[in-house]
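Narrative of activities, Objective 1.

The group set out to show that a structural description can be obtained from nothing but a protein's sequence at a throughput compatible with the screening campaign. Below is one input-output pair from the validation batch, recorded exactly as produced.
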Amino acid sequence: MIKMISKAALIIAALSTSQMVLAESVKFETTLGNFTVELNSEKAPISVANFIRYVEDGSYVGTQFHRVIPGFMAQGGGFDKNMMKKPSYGPIKNEGYNGLGNETATIAMARTNNPDSATRQFYINLNDNDFLNASQRPPGYAVFGKVTQGFDVIQKMATKKTKALPNGMRDIPVEPIIITKATLIK
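Output recorded for this entry:
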């Protein structure tokens, strides 16, 4: 009887553990189509927690992909449809050394030249961009997940005509690509 109980306990414990390991995902709906990003909180806990905070507070809704460079990346999350900068929480610590690479379809934190300056902006790699990794360009840019569905939507972004603004911002899609919904999937 004790052996049966301990086997049952082991099975329940294994199931509980496997559910805890299940990755969280975010489904984005945009004016160009939908895509889903699986988050890696094991290797990038700070970046994932930060990203989820913006998803849960709803502030990614109404933002646009404001910088799209074919063969490189699509960046979003920081500006509304009128290119007005959105308010953000404080910057986070860079997790560029987490072992995740800037590979095709991965999502990473955008930042300034200050390594610990990432806030709300993110980018999705259209190609392998090894030169953004900590091993090539210390301290690197922190990857925190990967597009698991709808990568064709991101690729489609790179086919859209872009423009520059008088303030020097470039590679802005002429027709804004707006995030209309962001849903956390557990």
